[in-house]
Amino acid sequence: MSLLDNYIESLEIGQGHGNQGLEHVQLGYVSTGFAQREEAIFQIDEVQFQIPSQLLDMVVSNNILVVLLDTFQLLTIDLDNPIQVKETQITRKQNEIKDVKLFLDPTGRHLIVATDGGENYYMYESWKQPKALSKLKGINITSVAWNKQSSLSSTSTFEVLIGTSSGAVYETWLEPNDDFFKKEEKYVQQIYTIEQYTPILGLYFEQFPVNAKKYVVIAITSTRIYQFIGTVGEPIEVRGDCSLFEPLFASFETLPKCHEIPGNLDYSQLHFFRRFHDLQQQSSAESFAWLTGSGIYHGTISFGSQDKNGSVISDPQLLQYPYLSEIIDSDMKMNKCPITFAFTEFHFILVYDDRVQSICRLNDQVVFEEILPHRVIGMAIDNIKRTFWIYTSLYIYEFCIQNEERDVWRIYLDKKQYNSALRYCKDPSQKDKVFKTQAKDYFQQKRFKMSAQIYANSTVPFEQVSLKFVDKTDALQVYLTNKLTHLTKQDRTQKIMITTWLTENYLSKMNELEDLASTAHCLPTPTEPTSLIPATESYFMEQMEETRDEFNAFLEANTANLHHSTIYELLKSHNRHGEYIFFATLVCDYDRVIEYWISEKKWRNALEVLNKQTNHDLFYKYSPILMEHEPHETVNVWMKQTNLNPRQLIPALLKYSRKSGELIGQNQAIRYLSNVVSSMNNTDPVIHNLLLSLYASQKTQDESALLTYLKNEGRDMHYQLDYALRLCTLHNRTQSSIHIYSQMGLYEEAVNLALKINDLELARINADKPEEPLRKYLWLRIAKHIICELKDTKNAIHFLNQSDVLKIEDILCYFPDFTVIDDLKEEICTTLEDYTISISNIRMDMKEAVKNSENIRYDLKELKNRFSIVNAADRCYCCDLVLFTSEFYIFPCQHAFHRDCLYEKISKVLPSRDIKRIRNIQDMITQATQETHEPSSPGLINSAKQVIFSTDAEDVSQVEKEKSKKQLKKLREELDDIICSECLLCGDAMIKSIDHPFVGEEEIDAGSDWFL
Q1: Is 278 or 106 the better-scoring residue by pLDDT?
Q2: pLDDT of 310-331, one tens digit each?
Q3: What is the pLDDT of residue 16?
């Protein structure tokens, strides 16, 4: 099927059975030129509803449609459920009524039926019969201004303004009541009269958005429009039944200024447009339109600080009615007024008695016209649902509007209102056409920067636009910058190319501005102002700073799109050091930043950057050169970084130490390593050995720092002792060598080295460290050195007094043979006295020991006579049988056990060694018992022996028996000592059995009987 076939089919669908008599004069759309099928914006569809009699009036609001028939019957249709039609008959007097009007509130629940005879009726949605408004009887209602505050949650209408044919304005409040005798009008009050006997054909009021008590009331006649601006009264809870708008109209003692448009119409209409028209979210009116004899007077509504003499109408215009052309005779033209009208955001809908026209509000062009087969009576407008219904005496048509703003963008484009055109574009192709036209227009106006910015949004080829602006650097810069923002993530290569080009342009511009600033003083001073741009050095420098800020912002925004190595080369080639550092810092390339500062020999700047890094490789890489030139600050930086590996910093420390001649207190390598060892608790032997070597190799005789370090290490030393000893020996650190000997346990070598330097105190300290007999030997070695080498007898005696291992007799052998005894007399006498006292103490100790031995023998003898009383009824604590049934033991705690029972229990807790010994003793007791009671062997030989050697045999047998009894007694005593060492219930055996279960393995079967 071709496109033409589709188009014809759509026309046939539009001219279905409901529109058979309609004639299309002009199609309601203009092709956008994008090769797509477009449906008509405006369409008139006949409603499939047969009206039973002549239709007089029709209103619709919130999808509730009410029709008044000439039989004074009301038909109420809910358009959400159009199948059900509610019929209501109005009971009226039999008098002639020429004109009837219906007024329906925005919620679609409150209906006023007004007749020209002054009989007015009120109908609520849930009622079956309307009621007469007695307080409004005799008033010919021509217009009603409903209150927007009325909602579906409330049954009342709130304050309502009513315009009459006599020019009077009434205010009322309708409250539906089921009580037949109670009036629905809460109050009715006349508040103003505009013109005597001049009908008020339209009435509207609106609250100011910023002031809840400030209102504007707009009223129209056939030729005039009035505005009343002022403050209303208090809420109904405060004012009672008084009028809300009375204070507002009371301020107008005379008629306010009005706008008059002459004409000969006896009817008129006033409509307002609001963007948000939903019942729950109604916004303030944005524009208005007034039907007059000369045309449609329309404009916008602006709420501000207007007073009573002000006006909320702004930018008013008058649209003259277009000529009507008949299809049958194109030469005959008529210019007449419509009977009713409506307007939307972009169109006026003019309804004549035989046709409908739509006029675009943007260009006043007729975009739709359709002739109807029947005479039109009027049009009902649903301002809540934005639907339009045209009706004749027998037919109802729906005027459908869809995609109204479809061609708005093109109209705005023709008017060069590009922003408005973009706002109403529906697809990218439409926007692209607007962008192309706008960019081309700006280029022709020489507004190159704006043109470049818009070209970036269009689909014009990149090469074509670039050539357009190749000699316009600033515009090209704008184009490239905006084009960059429209590229996607997949356009990686294009982004890199554009950002590189932009970088080159920025750098060239900065260089140019620097050149202009440097040569500004050479330019001649103009006698007359030839340019608005001052050619001064300060101006160029200011421009330079602005360009630099823009460039830095560009780098920050496009870090991910820049090719770093290329940007570095560009910055170097243009000699832009500041920007080089900024970019390197921006991309976190701190390696280049530090390298740059080092190349510039700005060591502190390099350290400042290094101090902020978390990459430890940078510390290891640049520390050698920084330590060489700024050792103190470098160490400060190191000490702040607690996660550095000191091993990796050894090259820097060694390089510094070889060139440094500073003392220990000023040596930065020692300062850092000391901090690592003491504060960071480093245990790496390499670090400790390095620190030790630095201490030992210092050019000073003072060993206090080295000794302090060695002593602080203590027993948990982390350096190598043999290496430390070699270092100290190499650098003649004698005291330190003595300390290391002591740490190694070589006390003799330590004492010898101390004696070698005649440091007796150090030798004495080391001599006290070992145990005997080495300790005494070392003290003798020191004494010998004092006596033989130093030949100082008095000092030897003083040394002897300091020792607790040497006596005078130990060192007498070292004194010369002809030593004067006077120096030793006191010490010798003291020694002899000490010996005498010692002998006396030993004699007393011996006497005490003999006495204690006699006491022990007596106690042992008494123990053999110890006894305990046992009753015949006493039982064993293990088997609960009478004790006297077998051998038993009784303890001092009066617990008694059979021997076998005690053995059985105690064997479970005794060590295996004791159990084995018990078994051996029992076997030996059994064997000894058998030998003691064994009878003599019968026989001749034995009889002969007894006869011949009777005396000797008896003696031998008696001796053997005595020996066996003693052995048997000894074994039983040993067995008792093992088994009866403690009571089974009071001793350690009971304590050790605390973790044993109450039910033993042998009792498990018996315990199972207790299970439930």
Answers
A1: 106
A2: 999 999 999 999 987 654 444 4
A3: 41
Integer Cα distance of 224 and 705 in angstroms: 110
pLDDT for the residue numbered 31 = 40
CA 851 to chain centre: 89
Query: In this predicted structure, what is the pLDDT of residue 718?
Result: 80
DSSP 789: I
CB atoms within 10 A of CB 47: 18
Report pLDDT digits (tens) over 638-686: 988 888 888 888 888 888 887 765 555 578 888 888 888 888 888 888 8
- Cα 424 to Cα 35, 126, 288, 400, 666, distances in angstroms: 19, 43, 22, 20, 78
Residue 67 to residue 46: CA distance in whole angstroms: 16
Q: Backbone dihedral region of 939: left (phi > 0), alpha (psi from -120 to 50 degrees) or beta?
A: left
For residue 392 the two structure tokens come to 């004749």
CB count in 10 Å sphere of residue 956: 11
Higher pLDDT, residue 97 or 9: 97
DSSP 285: -
Per residue in 517-553, is it b (16+ CB within 10 Å) or e — as a string? beebeeeeeeeeeeeeeeeeeeebbebbeebbeebbe
Q: What is the pTM of this model?
A: 0.58
User: Which residue, among 899, 873, 875, 870, has the nearest Cα to 886 in the 3D structure?
Assistant: 899
Angle at 83 between CA 80 and CA 87, to 5 degrees: 100
Q: Which is it for strands 313-319 and 324-325: parallel, antiparallel or unpaired?
A: unpaired
The Cα 193–Cα 200 span in angstroms is 10
Q: Identify the DSSP state of 69.
A: E
- 407 residue type, one letter: D
Cβ proximity of 272 and 285 under 8 Å: yes
Between CA 187 and CA 240 the distance in angstroms is 10
DSSP E strands in 208-264: the ranges are 214-220, 224-231, 258-260
- 314 with 366: CB under 8 angstroms? no
- Looking at per-residue pLDDT, the higher value among 907 and 803 belongs to 907
Which residues does 959 contact at the CB level (< 8 Å), separation at least 6? none
Q: What separation in angstroms does the CA of 423 have from each of 299, 403, 430, 994?
A: 21, 14, 11, 92
Counting residues of the chain whose pLDDT is more than 70, the rounded percentage is: 83
Per DSSP, the residues of 586-651 read HTT-HHHHHHHHHHTT-HHHHHHHHTT---HHHHHHHHHHHHHH-HHHHHHHHHH-TT--GGGGHH
Burial class (CB within 10 angstroms; exposed 0-12, middle 13-18, buried 19+) of 427: exposed
pLDDT computed for residue 795 by the predictor? 66
What's the CA gap between 166 and 318, in Å, rounded?
28
**Percentage of the residues of the chain whose pLDDT score is greater than 90:** 29
Q: How far apart are CA 458 and CA 436, in angstroms?
A: 6
- Does 941 have pLDDT greater than 60? no
* Nearest in space to 917 (alpha carbons), one of 965, 969, 966, 977: 977
Measured distance CA(314)–CA(330) in Å, rounded: 38
Q: Give, as one character, the DSSP assignment of residue 882.
A: B
- Is residue 998 a contact partner of residue 1006, using CB atoms and an 8 Å limit? no
